[in-house]
Design goal:
The protein is an alpha+beta fold and about 325 residues long. It contains 14 helices and nine strands.
Length: about 325
Amino acid sequence: MQELLGRLTSLDPDASASLKVIAYFDALVAGDVRVEALVRAAALLSGTVAGVESPQQCLRVAPDGGPAADAGSSAGWPGVNVSPDERVWIERSGHAHANDAMVLERFALAVGVLRTRRRSVTDDPVQLVIDVTRSEQERAAAATRLRLGNGQLRVVATPPAVHPTGPSTLIATAHGVVRATIVAGTDSMADHAPAGIGGPGDTMRLPASWSDALLALRLTDADHPRVDAAVLGVLLPAVRAIESEASRHPDVATLSTLDVRSAHTLAVLVEADSVRAAAGALGMHHSSLQARHEALGRELGYDPRSPLGRARYQLAALLLRLDRH
């Protein structure tokens, strides 16, 4: 699938985008998610409010993945009938976007498949227990269904194809379909990557752990295949707080201009106990690295080995990874 996507991207961007829509909904159907997750996926993919309406429910989701603020129905909006009494739609004003028809087609097909599988929709206990919008009573009941107990639990966020051991489900997010798995420890995570690991806590803290895990997953890269929110500590909420302005911050922009060799040299300089130790790790002469250290300091506008400089570098490096994800 990925190879085909790559070929289509170079030949026909619209066809590539259509195939991504198909893959997105297929992954959700394979995960046997709730209809709510399909509506969320349609909203995220189309960039506008999406909904499903039947005699049993009328559900609308905003493009940020949350519930739509106002009441509404399918009347007047482009949509597709799932069955004689059920319809899906997107609330697109003006001209249709290139993949609106594909989103609606796959949205309707996915809803139809799920309805066929199970005529009565029951809450997915994993989705429920990590959903911050649910009441404590609902989450406690879901935790009981999952037999989670009272120990320290974490949520692990991975791509759909990565399966850590534990209760899991697929969730449509603003950054794609992600598998959420509840684990009692991280010892079993060594063979699973990429993975974002949320902070530990009891069952009532699982929504926060899921939020942290999702952000941690976006901080993974080739050099950091597993990111643990607990290890990042206060850096994680700091990244979340300024994420929207990350690419515009001068510290991040400067790091993004470094070539691969300079970026690696800088990372080793920051992590090493001394410039001499960094020189040994890099296979460089101490005086040569000292000169490079000074040059990098001038380029960055701060000394990356000073206490404040290290903090600036670490935060900027995390934001750059997030921006490139």
